[in-house]
Amino acid sequence: GLSIGCSWNAGAAGTYFDASVLSLRVGNDNVTTETETPLLDFSTSPLWTNVYVENNAKVLVPLLWTRVQVRGQISLYYRSSIIFGLSDFPVSEFELVAEELLMSDSVIKVYGALRVSVKMLLMLNSQIQVDGGGNTDVATSVLEVRNLVVLKDNSVISSNAYLALYGQGLLKLTGQGDAIKGQRLSLSLFYNITVCRVEDILVNGVIKGSIVHIHRARTVIVDTDGMITASELGCRTGVGRGNYSNGAGAGAGHGGRGGSGFFNGILSEGGREYGSADLPCELGSGTQGPNESAGYVAGGGMIVMGSRQWPLLRLDNYGFISADGQSCHRPIRNSNGTLIGGLGGGSGGTILLFLQALALAETSTLSVVGGFGGSMGGGGGGGGRIHFHWSKLATGDEYVPLAFVDGAINFSGGAGSGNGLHGEKGTITGKKCPKGLYGTFCTECPVGTYKNDEGSDPNLCKPCSLEHLPARANFVYVRGGVTQSNCPYKCISDKYRTPKCYTPFEELIYTFGGPWPFAFLLLCVVMLLALILSTLRIKLIGSGCSYNGDDSIEHHDDQRFPYLLSLSEVRGAKSEESQSHVHRMYFMGPNTFREPWHLPYSPPAAIFEIVYEDAFNRFIDEINSVAAYEWWEGSVHSILSVLAYPCAWSWKQWRRRKKIHRLQEFVKSEYDHSCLRSCRSRALYKGMKVGATPDLLVSYIDFFLGGDEKRLDMVTSIQKRFPMRIIFGGDGSYMSPYNLYSDTLLTNLIAQHVPATVWNRLVAGLNAQLRTVRHGLVAGDYTLYDLHHSEYLDISNATSRNFAPAPQNSTSKNAEESQAYTSHVLSRKKDTVQLLITVMLLADLFVTLLMLLMFYWISLGAFLAVLLILPLSLLSPFPAGLNALFTNGPRRASLARVYALWNSSSISNIVVAFICGMIHYVITSVNYPEANVWHSREDDKWWLLPTILLLFKIVQARFVDWIIANLEVKDFSLFSPDPDTFWAYESVS
User: Fold this and answer.
1) What span is annotated as the signal peptide, if there is one (predicted)?
2) Which end of the chain offers a freer environment for a tag, N or C, measured as fewer CB atoms within 10 Å?
């Protein structure tokens, strides 16, 4: 009813309930009132169909909690209102559940929180006001509208607390005053296409919409013919709309600024950037012309897959997913058809992906590019935004790659036309990565970098510390990335030993403190062992002084070294042999396996009278067959010459020695001497004797008279002994130098014409000089056959020489004193030299073993090559040297030469070591070209040990030559160029 006193406050509206349709209507016939109609209960069984509040009616629901649920509509018309709760207690919660909520010129006011669940919400000049009273305990107000939300004519939904608006359809605010406000506002799920609650989605066709949402799905597969697109379906204007000014159309902006337009000297600025790159949720903007006839260009739409609560397990894209901005394809014309410029391109939209894994095939595309500007100077649209919100970021050993990207991801700006500028590129971002991971797809930081902060910026991956990185190591891949500055590393080869990546040789060196302490310790060990060996040698064989004393000019025994070949070294000969000697017949040939010794046929003239020619020729056949070598002896020598030449030399000397013994045995015992005319010689087997030089290169047969010849024949034969040929031994090589061998018989024969002291001095001096004469450097060019027939030492003229003996007493005494002093000095020098030789031997052995250790580390093949090419040559010098040092007597010089031969043969192993080292260096350079990226390293000193060993070999060779010289020639007066000085020692020779 009306109020006369308060016309604006009539009575409260009444209610009308239609029980047939279960409908409640509250109306006040357009009478203004400020008095509410209380409603204290709403039926839940059965549910009402509709509730209408209209015509200035006011409804109050003064409850702390209530639920209003109808099967149809809840409608408020014509300045009506509903108030839920009490203003003094804004803690209530109310629910409205209906198919539709329709409001026109009406108000819904809630003190507390409101939950609305409808399919459609239409508001025309209406308000929904939620007052939480500033109470933080009030729940969030939620409006869930499944299909359509439309606000028109200054309609407002507001809350001074939290407000959430959810929908799966269209949300439209049509006018300038339409608004949705909240202290914290959440709007989501308003899409024009929604695919919801489908586990596996396979797209072979086209899904197209301005806002596409795929929600609560497990996997999405876009086939090669499939497409999900929101291109050209975004805003026609929008926040980043492109400007248009007098024909200059600028591109719209979004993830990047739009390109500026330029026409007829007029520049129009491009649209601005807007939205968030870390979690974008906006449509692309467009551009519009000066009027409707000029048209428009739309931006890209929005594609959302998954949500924070329900992310996709996997997205496999083989086709196209795009939200590109629209391009302007036609220029703008005025009413008379004249071109007046072109619009700018639309900006790219948004692709927002909540997912666990992504796979982009090679032919796939993910695109939010800006549109092209129109002709006549239109600017390009800015690029859109792409964001990957990874739901599961495993770290450490549990890390798995999130994305496999072989296709194209395009977020560039559109191209401008004419003088129009290109739009800026958009953004592509990912969720912030944990430690060790970086980038959009949260991949592991590159090897050699670490990341100890959260974020996706590549600059957060910092270089690892090089302080503890060894020279031969590289940083290694770590699953899940490295999170500390001390990055793990691995040696460049498994041959190096961690943690310092040393070779076994270097590890041995640094175990003792480094190169210099190790070298000093090794030197001390070598010197100690050398002193022990030298002391032991002196105890066993005596010092150099005692050796010299026994072998001095005052003690001529059978221990004299044979290469000096003086008469004083040989036991006394029987005088009757020299008296009955007729002729010395030399074997021809160098006594090798290819050219063995042999005697020429037909007896020489000197023995022609004492032999039977036919029987002599048969003897030649027999002895030549005995002198020949078997085929296998030469084969063994050939094999040993290739594998180990010192062994081949020893084998040859051994077979030569066997051969000369065989010849001596044959002539002495087996042959019946039937070629001799003397019956006594045939009966006693004493007419012939085989001899040879100590080097086994020259052999001969001496013929003697039997004693039963006629006196005249005997005298004639003896007279034919002179002139006599003497063949030099040796071949001019290091192992067999040229020498003149004067045995007892030869000395006694020559002593008949020349004093023995003169002859011995001559032979000693000649042999001393011949030691240094090489093969092929002898004066003259004569073969052994020529020597048999033309080269003679004519001693018959020597008988005419008058040897006037000078006073020998003082000269001999001075010579002996000088010789004794020289021997003492040389003895001390020889002991020092032999100590140095021992040191060199031990140093050679240690360096050899270290070199073998190093090449064993390089490879087993290199180790075997260095050790076995040539076999035994690398390790044999040490025992050969010890054998020479611990031997006394005439064999010592020969053994020293054998040691020198082994020493020189081992150079081949050193050459092989250099070759293997070079091959190793080349292979290492090819296999590890980036070995110096992380650390400045020195090159491997693989060549150092072979070089040191080679220097040791050279120095040892010189020391050994010095030893041999002291052993073979102790009387240095033999080298005197002054004849008087040379012959002054004649009496003591």
Assistant:
1) none
2) N
